[in-house]
Batch of 2 targets.
Target 1
Amino acid sequence: MSCTFDLEHYGELLDSISAGGYRYATFEAEPEAGAVLLRHDVDLSLDAALRLARLERERDATATYFLMTESVFYNLDSEHGRATLEELRDLGHSVGLHAVYPRASRDDRFDAVVAWHNPDREYVHEPVSGFVNVMQPPWFTKGRYRSDSNQHWREGCPHEELASGDFEWLQLLVHPEIWVYEGASMGDTMRAMLDAKQAEWLEQLVDDRIDLT
Ligand SMILES: [Zn+2]
Ligand SMILES: [Zn+2]
């Protein structure tokens, strides 16, 4: 098995969660033994989030999707944004707020859980009024956290340890875009995402009655 950032290995990662006997939990209660808190920070693409969400549904996996209200890459208030929120909920996933410090204001689209986008050390683990901050203890506990940032697992891809049940519990942060779009490097993966976005935007322009002739 090779630890590539693609949907095939993402499926294998989910299989290893089942093989290790773990169950999926949300951030609304403190983590318990045997739990996997599967977290997706959606930084760049709602389409990538939906692709992952559907794949998880096929494998009876549930995750919390953290969505931004101030992204320059997508608009949660657009028709596509609203449809994405609805489909994520319909698929059985939870939705939290992926906020830009210091602004964290909650509305009924989000559960009372927040993950800061690109947080600084000074506040990353601090409690946030009205929310569970996913990086505050005990939700964040050293040795029970893995993240795939920029296609790099700082402590290694956890699939083997998950399959053999090595973690008492684990918070697993996966960024959908870097698995859904293919490329041999993070740069190539991002360029593949931009190609997909260009095709979507051309359709949007037509829908917007723009003459592309
Ligand atoms: Zn792996
Ligand atoms: Zn982020």
Target 2
Amino acid sequence: MAGAAKPYAEVRESVRALCAQFPASYWRELDRGRDYPKAFVDALTKAGFLSALIPEEFGGSGLPLSAAAAILEEVQAAGCNGAACHAQMYMMGTLLRHGNAVQKQKYLPEIAAGKIRLQAFGVTEPTSGTDTLGIATTAKRDGESYVINGQKIWTSRAEHSDLMLLLARTAPKEQVKKRSEGLSVFIIEMREALGKGLAIRPIRTMMNHATTEVFIENLRVPAENLIGEEGQGFRYILSGMNAERILIAAECVGDAKWFIEKASAYAKERSVFSRPIGQNQGVQFPIARAYAQMRAAELMVAEAAGRYQRGEDCGEEANLAKLLTADASWTAANMYVQTHGDFDFAEEYNIERKFRETRLYQVAPISTNLILSYLAEHVLGLPRSY
Ligand SMILES: Cc1cc2nc3c(=O)[nH]c(=O)nc-3n(C[C@H](O)[C@H](O)[C@H](O)COP(=O)(O)OP(=O)(O)OC[C@H]3O[C@@H](n4cnc5c(N)ncnc54)[C@H](O)[C@@H]3O)c2cc1C
């Protein structure tokens, strides 16, 4: 597809070459059984893409966030689905920026070598939804351990991850000065914890996402697995959430590109009334509009990633990137369905699969309303609504 020259051209090319080994039929098969794309995740790991952000001293490539964005964008633009493994990239910041030297030395080389996966992010709970400060899972210090009790929901990839970053309350709400204090982040070694206080139940969803409910009962976690300072976890999670928004925004750009490229090709090739359907402006214009929307949104992803990797405040840009790209991918998805007509609805064209997959990003990892509310209150200074 035309457009400005892209940074990380070689990385992009290698990702595309790898993705070519995982054709649409591979994803369709997995989708039917809601199976985890293990071979794909293993290949990305082996090629070093999932350790792009790990510093070289720990065995990674030490690349900045914009490189991770390029990798995930290409995965989606090739028709694959990075949701099976994107968390390793966006959670990395929490460990890199706030983990201590011992934790980094213990986990990063093994993650970089592909021996273990850091793929599960336990924040959302059934009763609190978007209100992260309202979580009810508690961690109580007991000697050299913390004892954790509670429940998480929508903990994606929990069955396929060795490590989980978990957010829990270490001080009751009434006892903290600021609402955002009293929460802490822990590294949970899942294999060790399973059956000893940790239970996972898969949730079958509209698309193939390997998401789960996680039940935690008297789970003992060594105190050395606390990330940073006790009570400051919300701050650490927030910086991870900005990375998450930027990387998922890059995936949405990739999805939009996939829809636009396929729609353009089909509009040239499909002939009705003895001419290509793409000769009709009623068919051309929605494709052109989707392209314009995607290109504009793509610029905001670059802006947000740049700010993040320079260590600047990027809350506004990360939220804008997520909002604009999720809208762009959804516009492009609808446009493709309209362009392709009846044949969309047949599984074999993969449109319905990509359509279901990209719909998620209007809701998760943060829903559109909450982004608008952030912009209204924190950027435009409008009165707080909640
Ligand atoms: C497939 C999937 C995978 C996920 N993976 C993970 C994961 O790995 N780890 C994790 O921790 N979480 C995960 N999540 C959770 C995800 O981050 C939340 O679903 C998301 O934050 C939105 O939560 P909710 O829809 O339950 O929101 P709710 O808070 O229940 O809100 C429901 C609706 O009300 C609106 N709303 C609520 N409050 C307001 C308000 N004040 N103003 C305006 N509108 C409001 C919301 O925008 C939304 O439309 C996942 C979710 C899904 C569906």
